[in-house]
Amino acid sequence: MERINTKYKHVPSTKITIEIYPDLPTFHQAVGEQDAPNWFMGTMEKNILKIVSPLNPGPEHTYESILKSTVHLYAMWLISDINPAAPKWMRQGIGGFEAKQMATSFITSSIADLVHRGEVP
Known about the structure:
Blueprint: H1 2-7, E1 17-21, H2 24-30, E2 42-45, E3 48-52, H3 63-82, H4 88-98, H5 104-116
């Protein structure tokens, strides 16, 4: 997290809490989404990041994907802390980028045509 704070030259305005739930059903119950799909394993509410334990990630995640998702959520929170008016696409994009959830080659190939046309994706 310190790496991201330094990169964006921002000192968070407050501390955040990370709540870790022992399994998916407990996480889903805690966030009021009892019927949520198995891929839903983390969210943020104000200054609280809520995730399922990476030691028990459920059928659609791994230890590593939970950790990456936590970095993703933190980066989203930090961008909101820097600028509460930042659009969702920017928060999500920076979160995914900082968590290394997409390969650079995928990002490049998915936006190359837009960039060549002078359009900001």
